[in-house]
Amino acid sequence: MTYRILLVEDDQSIRTVMATAFGHDGHHVIEADSGETGIALAASEEPDLAVIDLRLPGMDGIEVVQRLRLQYDIPLVILTAFSDSNDVIRALEAGADDFLSKPIELKELRARLAALMRRIEGASSDEPIQNLERAGFSINFDTGEVSYDGQELHLTKTEFRVLGELLIASGRILSKADLLEQVWGYDYLGETRLVDTQIYRLRAKLTVVGASDLLVTVRGRGFRIVDPSD
Fold this sequence. Notes:
Blueprint: E1 4-8, H1 12-24, E2 28-32, H2 35-45, E3 49-53, H3 61-71, E4 76-80, H4 85-94, E5 98-101, H5 106-121, E6 131-134, E7 137-140, E8 145-148, E9 151-152, H6 157-168, H7 176-184, H8 193-208, E10 215-218, E11 222-225
Helix pairs in contact: 2-3, 4-8, 6-7, 6-8
């Protein structure tokens, strides 16, 4: 399947290499050399996925992610040449789904994007296409709607899938490796900050509806949703 990929990268040489690789894979690449251009192109081109450099002239990658996330529910991947975990965490908290460090390994980039694209198709999901009610949550895998005790929860697709997997597990503990495989489609233990940050963001949203205590961290093992009625 062909996807429209928005590539926001100010380094011409890196952008050319990545655009060429995506083009060879059959995808349509929309190139932008600044955050401002990327935002404008997103509005006119309607990409399926965006890859955004963290350090851009003018509007930086964090702001680009924030603005795109407000308007679009598409996978967002950050590229960073910096090892500072705070930058990565800020990007993920802004709404990015994943990140990759420079220098870019094209094989890994393709594999990670392929996993995200499978999420677009829904091919990597084992979730039943039906309603599920557990621990006060009502979740509809068809429409992407979820509520707790009658209160609607506004989740990103990634947060929805994390919560969905935990509810499907029916109280079983899911490790970070489990969630990486089931939510992101990775078959290896990659960057666990992806999981930690999404759990943090999900717990913050559960706090608003009074359900944060139901998402339990089991030290050294993973996470689970507890049902007070069990």
